[in-house]
């Protein structure tokens, strides 16, 4: 203790001590630097990882809204199925990891315990199917086909079934009321793709792998409103995946219901009549081709004149929209998209293109008036017309002498329009077009809305084409190389095709006299869709306003509180004065009473004095194919346009069907009387269907369609249209248990009743639609 | 010490009470290094909060009492401080004569661990069951007795003024003294403690002024030993895995790399200011294993952020800085060596412990001095602080 050296330590030790000190502190400095790097520089990244670590999401699907017709009858709704699911989180809390519970469940469901266990186990590399592929926090469905009795057993003895739920779940369904498929207009749903799931992952409404979204038709265009938003419950979990608590959660919000302007009954008639017309056409012999008409496709549109609202839209060939429900099989998909079935997925009302034929003449008439030819002037309707060595003939080479434009419409005289178009063509400079050529015939077509979309509220509408100078030039530029090459390659005597190619190569950019003459009667390169023609004839019927056709009428929130009406929207006015419009209207009445369509209307018992019918027939020639039948008609309130590809003449092929549709709508009987009771839709449906306080949209059923002795013909509710899918409240005084039971029973009864109703109404409508009158 | 002479006189100053003696200007209390004291206590207090945060939800460990670990941690701290006071009271010089006995006892205890008396935790048999739920980890005390023993041997002749530096014979003796417990601990196997002991031996040799050849030789021997251990397969699989996971952290994040990966997520997600005490999701979700002991720093990182983690580092740095000053200012080699050993111990153990949570060191089972839960470690650390204080208080005044 006393032996303290006076000199202290050696310098070697001192130096080493300093070295140790520096070393030690630099170690701590290293730690500080690394800590800064992890926490401050890369903190965000790790925060994300930590979040992914401890938060697990359970997505609860939202019930998709229904699509209803104008009277509240569901045309797309949800079927309720009883789904029994098991929650692994709850099962794992049991002492035996839920083994006993699953065994009891198997007994109740009448399944083998092994099957149930397999369904509930999680998939991994070693586990063969069946196993659960989804999130372990998501309730795992054991069956979606439980009977109410089984569900009740599970619910009543909930203490025996911890973690097991039996809940009704919604599955999309297209009930086809009255037998109206409405397939193309409704569209379809198909499962989300991985990309879509990834994209929506961090949004407010993530997808489940089992989710479906609208791919076509109304299902697509109103998808965001119909879909609602799925609920997300976020659970905080620990390292073993045990749930520690619930983080912020969003409840599922069911989708809104869409009320359309369609009338399922009229739709049924339209579909039926279109199909019948096509079948009948196939029995007709075509003199030109020497075989029966093929009638390979057709479409019909029924529209309100004053709003542009579509009452009915049918496209043939059609398909059963329920084919998509629950996933479509490869075979069925091939069938729907194949050439053999002629692409039934196409909605020919908005996607079918063909030359308009004589229904185009309302445009030519307007163009003539615009160009300064008086409506009531005299024009020569000769049997044929010669332009530059080429002879253009009237239909069946008929002549009518000197007539005015109205009469030219009535008898559909081609030569009158040939002459007018040829004169205009010459005025505009002929083969050497003047600068600032008026091009009245083409300009008027554009003014009528041709060559562009009508703006209908379903996707994939096509534009059609007005073959004006601009189009000719573009078309020539796109094809001249091919044409010229073909012409150059010609050896010896050029074939017909080669001569055409040569001509096209040299002067294909030019608007020739023949083009213009042909164009004036709706033949040649002009392409239109039925919906475009419906828009035009509707405008003629409403005083000249071109409305965007709409199927959607109102979006009703699931609780019924918010009703957003989809207002009619116009995209232009017809370039017609009031006087000309009235003259044209009168001429089109003439078509129905003593013109080309008279044998289907005026001369076939149509009550023209009560319901003024206007019509225009069209028979468009298509190179290498049979003629396209067109019939465009309108009354004061409605427009009906029908077309049948390779179907024959306008009035011949489409006439009876259009007449039958009007008969059904107005209740016109065989002998030309009007039976108001039988009329399906004598006036446009202006009101929205009744919406109950709980948001249920009440379907209006026909009184007369009900047979005596059936259920009283009151307004029966459609449970599927209500947001929760729950039926109306039951009378008070019942105990919850029996009420549930009663509900289940009533559900079943109601469904059966609806099926019966549906079938009965189908029969009634069929009877109305003709064919098999009782 | 010589007040007795005046006590007989009637007017002389009264015999000073114990309190007076403690508070007098020349009292030992004034001479204590309070910076070290307060840094150590601050670390221990932060440690108790972290331990509480890490264990209050772990019902499977805390036997239903959220404060189970907190209470034990605070009691350990109390005992530790008492042990420090006892050490100061005894003084490191007076302990010199007891070193052989203490060394013998600790080595014996370590050997006992290898007998059925030992308890295996996390794959290493490093604990001694004392009964009544108490366990002790002799390796912690061996760190102290190895430092004391080597210091005694190496400084004996130098402090006596016979030599300027310890001769080869002495160094050899000292190394032999260290080798015996190292072999015993290697057999447990408690690799972390072996690593700390090797570093301590290195620092002790450096501070003793032993020839450079010894220092370099020892470094080479250490490296060779490591290769030998690897080659002979003396390591268990879990230890090899730890190194593999260190070399490649992305390796099997659910298995081998799990600890390091989750530890890094916990710390990284803390950001600048942390998620708040008791608010850490990684901590409450128990994603990081051994969070109250070896991985306690992850709680600080996650819940207190860079600010809290940095504070721990600063407190450790201040403490070690002051210890370095004590080492440099002590005038006898015996004290210098002890201080250097303690510095190496604290510094390396802290570096290894925090470094493994930050992914810059391989995982080894070592507690964070002052902060981690664990009685033996707490006791040993505070005894070591007692040694530092003793060196400071007993150095000749004026030097």
Automatic annotation (TrEMBL), chain A:
Q: Is Cell inner membrane one of the keywords?
A: yes
**Chief location bin:** membrane
Looking at the record, which segments are called Disordered? 685-774
The compartments listed are: Cell membrane; Membrane
Please state the Enzyme Commission number of this protein.
Answer: 3.4.16.4
Ranges for the Penicillin-binding protein transpeptidase domain? Answer: 298-662
Instruction: Indicate, by first and last residue, each region the UniProt record lists as having compositional bias (Low complexity).
Output: 715-728
GO MF: serine-type D-Ala-D-Ala carboxypeptidase activity
Which Gene3D superfamilies does its entry note? Answer: DD-peptidase/beta-lactamase superfamily, Penicillin-binding protein 2a (Domain 2)
Q: Where are the transmembrane segments?
A: 17-37
Q: What UniProt keywords are attached to this protein's entry? A: Carboxypeptidase, Cell inner membrane, Cell membrane, Cell shape, Cell wall biogenesis/degradation, Hydrolase, Membrane, Peptidoglycan synthesis, Protease, Transmembrane, Transmembrane helix
Task: Please report the record's description of how this protein sits within the membrane.
Answer: Single-pass membrane protein
Basic and acidic residues bias locations: 685-714, 736-774
Please state what class of enzyme this protein is: hydrolase
* Domain of life of the source: Bacteria
Q: Which residues form the Penicillin-binding protein dimerisation domain?
A: 60-246
Taking the record's annotation, the residue ranges forming a coiled coil are none
The record ties this protein, via NCBIfam families, to:
pbp2_mrdA
What does the sequence similarity comment in the record state about its family?
A: Belongs to the transpeptidase family.
- The name under which this protein is listed is Penicillin-binding protein 2
Automatic annotation (TrEMBL), chain B:
Keywords, in A-Z order? Cell shape, Membrane, Transmembrane, Transmembrane helix
What InterPro entries has UniProt attached to this entry? Cell_cycle_FtsW-rel_CS, FtsW/RodA, RodA/MrdB
Q: Where in the cell is it found?
A: Membrane
Q: Which pathway does the protein contribute to?
A: Cell wall biogenesis; peptidoglycan biosynthesis
Membrane-traversing stretches: 34-54, 69-90, 102-121, 141-158, 170-188, 194-210, 215-235, 304-321, 333-351, 371-388
Q: Which reaction does it catalyse?
A: [GlcNAc-(1->4)-Mur2Ac(oyl-L-Ala-gamma-D-Glu-L-Lys-D-Ala-D-Ala)](n)-di-trans,octa-cis-undecaprenyl diphosphate + beta-D-GlcNAc-(1->4)-Mur2Ac(oyl-L-Ala-gamma-D-Glu-L-Lys-D-Ala-D-Ala)-di-trans,octa-cis-undecaprenyl diphosphate = [GlcNAc-(1->4)-Mur2Ac(oyl-L-Ala-gamma-D-Glu-L-Lys-D-Ala-D-Ala)](n+1)-di-trans,octa-cis-undecaprenyl diphosphate + di-trans,octa-cis-undecaprenyl diphosphate + H(+)
Where is it mostly found? membrane
The answer to whether the entry has keyword Membrane is yes
Q: Which NCBIfam families match?
A: rodA_shape
Q: What is this protein called?
A: peptidoglycan glycosyltransferase
């Amino acid at each position: 203790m006393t032996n303290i050296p006076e000199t202290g330590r050696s310098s070697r030790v001192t130096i080493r001590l300093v070295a140790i000190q520096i070393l030690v502190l630099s170690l701590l400095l290293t730690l500080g630097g690394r800590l800064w790097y992890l926490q401050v520089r890369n903190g965000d990244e790790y925060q994300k990882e930590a979040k992914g670590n401890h938060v697990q999401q359970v997505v609860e699907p939202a019930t998709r809204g229904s699509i209803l017709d104008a009277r509240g009858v569901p045309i797309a709704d949800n079927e309720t199925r009883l789904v029994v699911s098991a929650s692994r989180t709850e099962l794992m809390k049991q002492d035996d990891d839920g083994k006993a519970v699953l065994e009891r469940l198997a007994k109740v469901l009448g399944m083998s315990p092994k099957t149930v266990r397999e369904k509930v186990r999680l998939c991994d590399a070693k586990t063969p199917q069946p196993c659960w592929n989804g999130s372990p926090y998501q309730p795992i469905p054991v069956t979606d086909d439980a009977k109410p009795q089984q569900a009740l057993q599970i619910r009543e003895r909930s203490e025996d079934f911890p973690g097991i739920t039996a809940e009704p779940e919604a599955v999309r369904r297209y009930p086809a009321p009255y037998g109206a498929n409405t397939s193309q207009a409704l569209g379809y749903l198909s499962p989300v793709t991985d990309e879509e799931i990834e994209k929506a992952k961090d949004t407010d409404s993530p997808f489940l792998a089992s989710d479906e979204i609208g791919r076509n038709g109304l299902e697509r265009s109103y998808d965001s409103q119909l879909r609602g938003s799925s609920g997300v419950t976020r659970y905080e979990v620990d390292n073993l995946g045990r749930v520690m608590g619930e983080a912020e959660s969003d409840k599922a919000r069911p989708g809104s219901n869409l009320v359309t302007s369609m009338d399922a009954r009229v739709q049924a008639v339209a579909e039926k009549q279109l199909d019948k017309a096509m079948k009948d056409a196939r029995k007709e012999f075509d003199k030109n081709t020497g075989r029966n008409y093929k009638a390979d496709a057709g479409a019909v549109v029924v529209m309100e004149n004053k709003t542009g609202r579509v009452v009915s839209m049918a496209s043939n060939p059609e398909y059963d929209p329920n084919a998509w429900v629950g996933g479509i099989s490869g075979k069925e998909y091939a069938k729907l998209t194949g050439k053999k079935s002629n692409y039934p997925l196409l909605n020919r009302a908005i996607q079918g293109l063909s030359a308009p034929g004589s229904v185009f003449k309302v445009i030519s008439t307007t163009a003539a008036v615009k160009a300064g030819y008086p409506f009531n002037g005299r024009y020569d309707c000769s049997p044929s017309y010669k332009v530059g060595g080429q002879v253009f003939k009237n239909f069946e080479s008929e002549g009518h002498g000197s007539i005015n434009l109205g009469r030219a419409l009535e008898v559909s005289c081609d030569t009158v329009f040939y002459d007018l178009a040829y004169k205009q063509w010459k005025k505009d400079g002929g083969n050497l077009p003047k600068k600032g050529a008026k091009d009245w015939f083409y300009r008027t077509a554009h003014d009528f809305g041709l060559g562009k979309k009508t703006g209908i509220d379903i996707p994939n509408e096509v534009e059609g084409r007005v073959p004006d100078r601009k189009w000719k030039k573009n078309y020539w530029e796109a094809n001249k190389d091919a044409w010229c090459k073909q012409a150059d390659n010609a050896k010896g005597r050029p074939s017909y095709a080669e001569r055409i190619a040569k001509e096209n190569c040299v002067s294909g950019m030019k608007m020739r006299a023949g083009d213009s003459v042909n164009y004036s009667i709706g033949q040649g390169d002009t392409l239109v869709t039925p919906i475009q023609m419906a828009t035009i004839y509707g405008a003629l019927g409403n005083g000249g306003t071109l409305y965007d056709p709409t199927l959607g009428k109102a979006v009703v929130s699931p609780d019924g509180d918010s009703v957003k009406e989809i207002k009619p929207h116009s995209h232009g006015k017809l370039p017609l004065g009031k006087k000309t419009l009235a003259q044209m209207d009168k001429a089109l009445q003439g078509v129905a009473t003593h013109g080309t369509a008279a044998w289907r209307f005026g001369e076939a018992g149509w009550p023209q004095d009560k319901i003024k019918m206007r019509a225009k027939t069209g028979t468009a020639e298509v190179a290498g194919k049979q003629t396209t039948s067109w019939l465009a008609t309108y009354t004061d309130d409605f427009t009906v346009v029908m077309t049948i590809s390779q179907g024959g003449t306008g009035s011949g092929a489409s006439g009876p069907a259009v007449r039958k549709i009007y008969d059904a709508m107005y209740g016109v009987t065989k002998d030309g009387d009007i039976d108001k009771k039988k009329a399906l839709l004598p006036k446009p449906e202006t009101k929205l269907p009744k919406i109950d306080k709980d948001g249920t949209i009440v379907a209006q059923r026909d009184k007369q369609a009900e047979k005596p002795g059936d259920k009283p013909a009151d307004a029966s509710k459609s449970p599927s249209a209500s947001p929760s899918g729950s039926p109306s409240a039951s009378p008070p005084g019942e105990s919850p248990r029996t009420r549930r039971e009663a509900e289940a029973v009533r559900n079943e009864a109601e469904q059966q009743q609806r099926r019966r109703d549906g079938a009965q109404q189908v029969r009634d409508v069929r009877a109305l639609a003709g064919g098999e009158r009782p | 010490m010589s007040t007795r002479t005046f006590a007989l006189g009637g007017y002389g100053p009264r015999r000073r009470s114990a309190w007076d003696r403690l508070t007098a200007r020349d009292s030992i209390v004034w001479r204590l290094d309070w910076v070290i004291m307060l840094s150590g206590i601050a670390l221990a207090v932060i440690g108790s909060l972290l331990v509480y945060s890490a264990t209050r939800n772990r019902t499977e460990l805390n036997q239903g009492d959220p404060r189970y670990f907190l209470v034990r941690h605070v009691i350990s701290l109390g005992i530790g401080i008492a042990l420090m006071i006892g050490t100061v009271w005894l003084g490191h010089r007076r302990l010199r004569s007891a070193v052989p006995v203490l060394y013998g006892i600790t080595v014996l205890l370590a050997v006992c661990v290898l007998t059925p008396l030992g308890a295996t935790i996390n794959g290493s048999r490093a604990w001694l069951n004392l009964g009544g739920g108490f366990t002790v980890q002799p390796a912690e005390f061996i760190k102290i007795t190895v430092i004391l023993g080597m210091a005694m041997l190496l400084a004996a002749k130098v402090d006596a003024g016979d030599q300027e530096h310890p001769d080869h014979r002495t160094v050899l003796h000292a190394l032999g003294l260290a080798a015996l417990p190292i072999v015993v601990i290697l057999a447990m196997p408690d690799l972390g403690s072996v690593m700390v002991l090797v570093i301590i031996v290195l620092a002790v040799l450096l501070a003793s002024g032993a020839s450079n050849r010894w220092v370099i030789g020892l470094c080479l021997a250490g490296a060779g030993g490591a290769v030998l251990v690897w080659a002979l397969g003396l390591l268990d699989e879990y230890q090899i895995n730890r190194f593999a996971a260190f070399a490649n952290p992305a390796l099997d994040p659910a298995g081998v790399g799990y600890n390091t990966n989750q530890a890094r997520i916990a710390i990284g997600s803390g950001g600048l200011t942390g998620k708040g005490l008791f608010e850490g999701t990684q901590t409450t979700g128990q994603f990081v294993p051994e969070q109250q002991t070896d991985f306690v720093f992850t709680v600080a990182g996650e819940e207190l952020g860079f600010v809290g983690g940095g504070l721990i580092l600063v407190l450790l740095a201040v403490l070690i800085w002051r210890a370095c000053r004590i080492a440099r200012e002590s005038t006898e080699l015996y004290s210098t060596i002890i201080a250097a050993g303690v510095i190496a111990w604290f510094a390396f153990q802290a570096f290894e412990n925090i470094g493994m949570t930050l992914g810059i060191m391989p995982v080894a089972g070592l507690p964070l001095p002052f902060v981690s839960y664990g009685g033996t470690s707490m006791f040993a650390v505070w005894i070591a602080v007692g040694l530092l204080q003793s060196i400071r208080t007993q150095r000749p005044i004026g030097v």
